[in-house]
Amino acid sequence: MGNDYYQVSRKMEDQIAALSEAVFGRQCKDQTELTNRFQSIGRSRALQDMQAQLSFLAEAVATERPSLFTDYVAWLKTMLLERGIPISDVVNNLTYNREVLQNMLPPEIHSVACAYVDMGIHILDGSPEEPPTFLHVQAPLADLSRQYLEALLRAERHEASRLIMDAVQSGIAVRDIYLHVFQRSQYEIGRLWQMNRINVAQEHYCSAATQTIMAQLYPYIFSGKKNGYRLVATCVSGELHEIGIRMITDLLEMDGWDTYFLGASTPADNILQALEEQAAHVLAVSATMTFHVRMVAELIQKVRSSELGKTLKIMVGGYPFNVEPELWQKVGADAFARDAKEAVSVAKGLVTA
């Protein structure tokens, strides 16, 4: 990452609590009607949301990728509109962010950050208000995907499991179920939460149920012939979204790999230890939240400085890498995969090139 921009983002984060307090106070002073709304969710929650927004901005600055912030703003627009919050409140909040950054940070720092905020304000006019569904009627296994998700949303986990096991027994490949049912339904669950159609508890239930059902398919996954390649898969410290990287390890197991899945929020030192113990050929790192991108870069830098890191191949993936397709180069990886299917071919290419 560019050292100047990285330092700018660090200085922003050093003051993120104070910046958030200032934005909060400024907005409450000018928009007194917001006081009741903020009281309903709690002051600490409101400040937490404002800190998250500044974290997205800092990450975009650190990577010199404004799209990471403007994409977040477009997502935020839809999420808030579906919860009855007018777009004018988003514009005002970004404007207050800009003013606070100018007032509290040195010119050499706030100039870059404010330029990114201006891009965020500008994109609000054109970004779509409702993202399209991921369960397209013409997609492979569309009916099964729809029935599966509907069962989960009714909290009928056993029915969802029956649908999957019946499909496998009928001859549908486990790989196709992962790609066209599990993966698509997870994308759709995220969209439904954004659209305020489901709550956090439902989102967590659906993801947990899918992981349970995935485990029921393990007899089909771990029965293939091995190809001699080993991969360690992990989420960086603080990243809790693990189901995507878990799907990738399962698909790689079907392709003959030995995988070592570390799960969510794994400390860097433990990742290094696992790489050495497993004599891994590839490290796969996942980050779903944009404000974890720098942690991916720092992990990769740490791995590269080790003896094993001189020959190890590193693949990254997750939402921010799809938003900015060249971001993998910025964090120092060897490649990135857009989804679970692509991850299998990318991993193979890394060890056979």
From TrEMBL:
Q: Which family does it belong to?
A: Belongs to the phycobiliprotein family.
Any idea which GO molecular function terms this record carries?
cobalamin binding; metal ion binding; methionine synthase activity
PANTHER family cross-referenced by the UniProt entry: METHIONINE SYNTHASE
Q: Which GO terms describe its biological process?
A: homocysteine metabolic process; tetrahydrofolate metabolic process
Q: What is this protein called?
A: Cobalamin-binding protein
Which PROSITE patterns does this entry report, sorted A to Z?
A: B12_BINDING (PS51332)
Organism source for this protein? Heliobacterium mobile
Q: Which keywords does this Swiss-Prot/TrEMBL entry list?
A: Bile pigment, Chromophore, Cobalt, Metal-binding
Q: Which GO terms describe its cellular component?
A: cytosol
What residue stretches are annotated with the B12-binding domain?
228-353
InterPro entries in alphabetical order: Cbl-bd_cap (IPR003759), Cobalamin-bd (IPR006158), Cobalamin-bd_sf (IPR036724), Globin-like_sf (IPR009050), Met_Synthase/Corrinoid (IPR050554), Meth_synthase_dom (IPR036594), Phycobilisome_asu/bsu_sf (IPR038719)
Top-level taxon of origin: Bacteria
Which Gene3D superfamilies does the UniProt record give? Cobalamin-binding domain, Methionine synthase domain, Phycocyanins
Which Pfam family would be a valid example here?
B12-binding_2
